[in-house]
Design goal:
By secondary structure, the protein is mainly alpha-helical. It has 3 domains: 1-103 and 160-177, no CATH class; 105-157, no CATH class; 193-249, no CATH class. It is 42% helix and 10% strand. It has 11 helices and 8 strands. It has helices spanning 13-26, 36-46, 78-84, 87-99, 109-114, 139-145, 168-171, 193-202, 211-227, 231-234, 237-249, and strands at 7-8, 11-12, 28-29, 33-34, 105-108, 126-130, 133-137, 154-157. The strands form 4 sheets. The chain has a two-stranded antiparallel ribbon with strand order 1-2. Helix 1 crosses helix 2 (36-46) and helix 2 (36-46) crosses helix 4 (87-99). 26% of the residues are buried.
Length: 250
């Protein structure tokens, strides 16, 4: 899947970068820059009618405490930008978005466990490693698998009942499907004069009309014009036409 140069999952590149800046501090990942669940939940917000594309309404310190840090603006999201711009990172976000089932909120898994709220709400999506793959499981699903919570990632939920976000993980399954315009193919002309002449006569500079045909058309027009010239001018007509053609063949 080729990365789309204009946006990520329908999000402008500069906005997506700011999302990754926040996610880098909310759930830092040493290899990916930011954990995929946290990034996917923020993409859910962007595509949710309760939040939307005007990120000035929700990508704010009141929603994400890390933005209140004095040095927040100096946070470098380049590792996350690099990973989630790659086909591997994009595919992981698509799968994670589907796994989160539209969840737009999160809390630290460690914090919820310490406060006794991790298993309290049955719609919590708790991260866990199952068979070497990170899953997001309800308390009931987690207990049935016997897996342990993955405390390196947040736990996800919807704090209040909201309309579900659009299924961006389906809409943008193949970002390479975005329309692109290819530059027109141009035929290079060599510096060799003979090469230039052959390409001109072959029509490479005039599409399907060669210079030779243009000259023939010009000659025909000159002849027609000559037929209605005064008698004394016709004697020099052939010499004039021959003289006009010489520069093309000299």
């Amino acid at each position: 899947m080729a990365p789309n140069i204009n946006n990520q999952f329908g999000i402008p590149r500069d906005v997506f970068k700011n999302i990754l800046r926040v996610a880098t501090l909310e759930a830092r990942d040493p290899a990916k820059g930011a954990s995929p669940g946290t990034v996917a939940s923020m993409i859910n917000r962007y595509h949710s009618p309760s939040y939307g594309s005007n990120v000035n309404n929700w990508l704010i310190p009141g929603q994400y405490a890390v933005m209140e840090k004095p040095d927040f603006s100096r946070t470098d999201p380049s590792r996350a930008v690099s990973y989630y711009n790659s086909p591997t990172g994009q595919q992981e976000l698509l799968k994670t978005g589907q796994a989160l089932r539209g969840a737009t909120d999160f809390r630290s898994t460690s914090y919820l466990n310490k406060t006794g709220n991790l298993f309290k709400y049955q719609d919590n999506l708790i991260p866990a490693i199952v068979g070497g793959t990170r899953k997001y499981l309800t308390p009931k699903e987690l207990q049935s698998t016997g897996a342990k919570p993955d405390y390196s990632e947040n736990t996800f939920f919807n704090e209040t009942k909201r309309p579900a976000p659009s299924k961006w993980w389906e809409t943008y399954r193949d970002q390479s499907a975005a329309p692109t315009s290819a530059p027109p193919v141009q035929t290079a002309i060599g510096v060799n004069p003979a090469d230039v002449q052959s390409k001109v006569l072959a029509g490479n500079l005039f599409g399907g009309i060669t210079l030779e045909n243009l000259m023939k058309q010009g000659l025909q027009e000159e002849l027609l014009t000559g037929l209605i010239q005064p008698e004394e001018d016709k004697t020099n007509l052939f010499a004039q036409l021959l003289n006009q053609t010489r520069p093309y063949y000299s």
